[in-house]
Design a protein that fits this description.
The chain is an all-beta fold and about 120 residues long. The protein has strands spanning about 1-5, 10, 20-25, 35-40, 45-50, 60, 70-75, 80-85, 90-100, 110-115, 115-120.
Amino acid sequence: QLQLVESGGGLVQPGGSLRLSCTTSRFTLDYYAIGWFRQAPGKEREGIACIDRSGGYTYYADSVKGRFTISRDNAKNTVYLRMNSLKPEDTALYYCTAGRLATMTDAEYDYWGQGTQVTVSS
């Protein structure tokens, strides 16, 4: 059930940065925990970051810890994923998702976007 809209993806050189955004016009995001997942061709979908409703709790996969930052601006009904020091292995389709719990388990989430492509290449 697609309800969220991601933006901000694109082509970036290794070492570069991007900021992804996740929003919706369908409901208020501050009622939900938000997760970011990604899926590269031929690989399983991977949870990379999540944030609780208040923004006081965040969690990162080891693969992105120290490089990516998840944050939310409930006044703007938007969640962000700031990605620094990007590597070619970060190339994937990035999805945001909303659910009751901040978790890295995709089955716990109820609403998904259709994704935004991030390509890291020189």
